[in-house]
Specification:
globular, Rossmann fold, 7 helices, 41% helix, seven-stranded parallel β-sheet, alpha/beta
Length: 212
């Protein structure tokens, strides 16, 4: 099961999941309509595209979440609803449907004690998802993400240029596609417990791969 399939990381992850031999079917819960490029997968039964309000049509083995918005786009209340409430609700449904792995994109600096609203929301989300007690829980904590989002974010574009190399490793910018491929690689070797993966871990999972 995947939520956040139309975003920067999620769109890359969806393609990887659909091409993976590990999964027979990918269930996507989304607010947007299914892209035309996915219709062949839907016809073959490899993809089930449904709204968040629809009941799950089958059991879930692994749950992936790449949901996220910004305060500029959605306001404080909207950011908290998407980045906390919707993430926790979706993870709860997936675990209830049998998911043993919960793999969620969080953010660098996530902490429920943070002075920054965004980091605090991510930290609270991590606490509540971890409390679901899935067999294996992965939180991904990248810094600035590089890639085509379908919308221009000046602040992230400038930060992405600054954070490519000269800063501490875990603060450096990375491609959204690199996070997606690391999530899939980690799922294949998931162990019991809760793990927080930073930029250095994303790099380790992507050794030998090139991401734009």
């Amino acid at each position: 099961m995947l939520v956040g399939a139309t975003g920067l990381i999620g769109s890359h992850l969806l393609g990887l999941l659909l091409r993976s031999e590990r999964y027979d079917c990918v269930i996507v819960a989304a607010r947007q309509a299914m892209p035309d490029t996915c219709r062949e997968y839907a016809r073959s039964g490899r993809l089930v595209w449904q709204s968040f309000s629809d009941d799950l049509s089958r059991n879930v083995d692994d749950f992936f979440c790449a949901l996220g918005t910004t305060q500029k786009v959605s306001g404080k209340a909207g950011l908290e609803w998407v980045d906390h409430d919707l993430v926790v609700q979706s993870a709860t449904r997936a675990v209830g449907a049998g998911a043993s792995l919960v793999s969620v994109v969080s953010a660098h600096g996530a902490s429920s004690d943070s002075l920054f609203f965004y980091s605090r929301v991510k930290g609270n989300m991590e606490q509540d998802v971890q409390a679901l007690k899935a067999s294996s829980t992965h939180f991904w904590q990248p810094s600035v993400l590089l890639g085509n989002r379908g919308e221009f974010r000046l602040g992230e574009a400038l930060a992405g240029l600054l954070l490519r190399w000269p800063f501490p490793l875990n603060a450096r910018a990375r491609a959204g596609s690199a996070v997606a491929s690391a999530m899939l690689a980690a799922a294949a070797v998931a162990k019991p417990g809760c793990f927080r993966y930073k930029v250095s871990d994303i790099d380790n999972f992507n050794q030998g791969e090139v991401h734009d």
